Amino acid sequence: MELLYFGDNGWGDELFIATLMTVAVSISAMLIGFLFALIFTPLKLSKYKILNLIGNFYTTVIRGVPELLVIYLFFFGGSGAIMYVASIFGYFEYIEINAFITGSFAIGIISGAYSTEVFRGAIQSIDKGQFEASKVLGFNKYIHFFKVIMPQMLRLALPNLSNVWQITLKDTSLISVTGLVEIMRQSYIAAGSTRDPLLFYSFAAVLYLLLTFISMKFLNRLEKNYSRGF
Amino acid sequence: MDFDLMITSFPKLLSATVITLKLLSASLFFGLFIGLLFAILRLNKNPIINKFAYGYSYVFRGTPLLVQIFIIYFGLGQIEYFRSTFLWVVFKEPYWCAIIAFALNTGAYTSEILRSAFQTIKPGFIEAGKSLGISSKIIFYKIQIPIAIKQSLPAYGNEIILMMKGTSLASTVTLLDLTGVAKYIISTTFKPIEVFIVAGSIYLFMTFIIHNLIKYLEKKFSY
Q1: Which residue range or ranges hold the ABC transmembrane type-1 domain (chain A) (predicted)?
Q2: At what angle do helices B3-42 and B192-221 cross, to 10 degrees?
Q3: B67 touches chain A (CB under 8 A)
């Protein structure tokens, strides 16, 4: 147990920082995912077949391919792709991207595919009359989306979004293969140098459980808040 | 685009797919039994048994699969006593460690799927069986299980696809499954996009097959 103490002899402080890193990656991946969902949800709901196809391609491919493979693609291909783009602009030096950015992007694209499906489902299950009513009342596009559709969509999407958050949080453990020091990577380092893998991996499991437990409590309160009046 | 690499890596990746499928089928097979067992325990009226089953599914669904594999593969070998038991024959193999971790993980999810399926069975069905004088054993096997299978098929299909993606984590414990071989080829050739397209297509093809198989079964079980 002394191995988990804070300070120079224990790994407590390192693991604490690693936990913060996991939370940071999860949040930034979730936000990047929302950005992707913002682009691809309208595509999936569009009237045009080609746009539908692009939207469906994104969600099908990402949800059908293992997360680890996507992470390897970004880890090995990320800097190459950036360097290729930079070479068009006449910059030929080696560019190394930060593991945090690579990881957030890889997980973000994955979580974006799930978020897209959630938002699509939520918008589709809003009563048609709501769209028609807001049209009849002559609301402009801004009020139509932000005051009529969005509040209803959020209420329907929140329970599923909290599932996406859980998936995203657990997926961040896979970024440890790229060397970003989050919970898994720190446990791996600690287990390697103390030869006590059972303790550290079990402790990592406890940390993940704690994170999911706390975030579930928070999200349940949010859900209650958004479903007032129903 | 290096099409030559795509062509030469295809047979290598395809032979690695066999290991992926082996891992998947073995873990689903054991996972189904674990899931059924814990679903029945969840429905038990004894609060201790009930809580135990809930705790099991909570822990395995709340932690990443990677942690579970690492605890089983790296962690358990550390216990001196454990190494002297006959179980060590199984647990020293990364292949079996991966299967055990996957089976326990998918078992937790399956137990939740089956539990909710059992709970949505209308009590009228069971009462009808009882009033016809059918024994509770036959009610379970002939009424509850078929209805539960039908109810849980869509969710279980998703779980199979999630598990198929989960088997990629076997590559972290030195197994050369589809992802493991893909990573090996990427790190030797530094051509991630080409390899990703080939390996990704194989995974997508498997997803496609599973998806349609479940659809077919759903049709068959619907009444």
Answers
A1: 15-220
A2: 40
A3: yes
- Percent of chain B whose pLDDT exceeds 70: 100
Give the tens place of pLDDT for each residue, B143-173: 888 888 888 998 999 999 999 999 999 999 9
* A92 contact partners, CB below 8 Å, separation of at least 6: A86
Give the residue with greater pLDDT, B30 vs A89. B30
Query: For the segment B41-61, what is each residue's pLDDT rounded down to a tens digit?
Result: 998 889 999 999 999 999 999
Please report the number of interchain residue pairs, chain A to chain B, with beta-carbon separation below 8 angstroms.
113
Distance CA A71, CA A109 (A): 10
- B107 at interface of A, judged by CB pairs closer than 8 A: no
pLDDT in tens, A62-107: 999 999 999 999 888 877 777 788 888 877 777 777 889 989 999 9
In this prediction, does ipTM exceed 0.90? Answer: no
Rounded distance between C-alpha atoms, residue A179 and residue A71, angstroms: 12
pTM of the model as a whole: 0.89
Contact between residue B34 and residue B163 where contact means Cβ atoms under 8 Å apart: no
Is B171 near chain A, with CB under 8 Å? yes
The alpha carbon of residue B12 and the mean position of all alpha carbons in its chain are separated, in whole angstroms, by 25
What are the residue boundaries of the structural domains of chain B, listed by start? 3-221
**Alpha-carbon distances of B181 from A69, A82, B39, B188, rounded to whole Å:** 11, 25, 36, 11
Minimum-distance CB partner of A66 among B68, B75, B179: B179
Q: Which residues of A touch B70 (CB under 8 A)?
A: 184, 187-188, 197, 201, 204
With CB atoms and an 8 Å threshold, state whether B200 touches A69. Answer: yes
Rounded Cα distance between A55 and A41, Å, is 7
B22 contacts A173 by C-beta, under 8 angstroms: no
- The predicted structure's pLDDT at residue A149: 86
Of A63, A65, A198, which is closest to B71 when you measure between CB atoms? A198
Q: Name the residue in chain A with its Cα closest to that of B179.
A: A69
The crossing angle, in degrees rounded to 10, of helices A99-124 and A67-88 is 110
CB B142 within 8 A of CB B125: no
- Among A9-13, A15-19, A154-158, B67-71, the range scoring the smallest mean pLDDT is A9-13
| Domain B3-221 classification at class level | mainly alpha
